[in-house]
Amino acid sequence: MYPMILLGSGKTYTMMGTADNPGVNRRAVKELIRICDEREHIEYEMAVSLLEIYNEKIMDLLSTDPFHLKHRL
């Protein structure tokens, strides 16, 4: 998912939501996990990344060192 919209337009709320009203990210991950659980005969491996691109700098928001990224093309 890649939201690129003007500042202050509600991207964080739309993507993350709240505990009572989860956003797009949380709903999508929950749905993927539900589907994986349903298909018991298939083994899945998932990886998650959460990046922020701001002023042409990429930060890994799940890393303890947000500026250390593995770049893959």
Q: Which secondary-structure class do the elements indicate?
A: alpha+beta
Helix fraction bin:
25-40%
Quaternary state, please?
single chain
Distance linking N and C termini: 17 Å
Strand content: 5-15%
The chain-level mean pLDDT equals 79
Sheet with most strands: strand arrangement: 1-2
Radius of gyration: 15 Å
Largest sheet: 2 strands, antiparallel
C-alpha geometry: flat
Let me know the number of strands: 2
* Number of H- or I-type helical stretches: 2
Unreliable residue stretches: none
Order of helices and strands: HHEE
Q: Care to describe what's here?
A:
The chain has 73 residues and is of the alpha+beta class. It contains 2 helices and 2 strands, in the order ααββ. The protein has helices spanning 11-16, 24-38, and strands spanning 51-54, 57-60. The relative contact order is 0.09.
Entry keywords:
73 residues; 29% helix; 2 strands
Brief rundown of the structure:
With 73 residues, the chain is of the alpha+beta class. It has helices at 11-16, 24-38; strands at residues 51-54, 57-60.
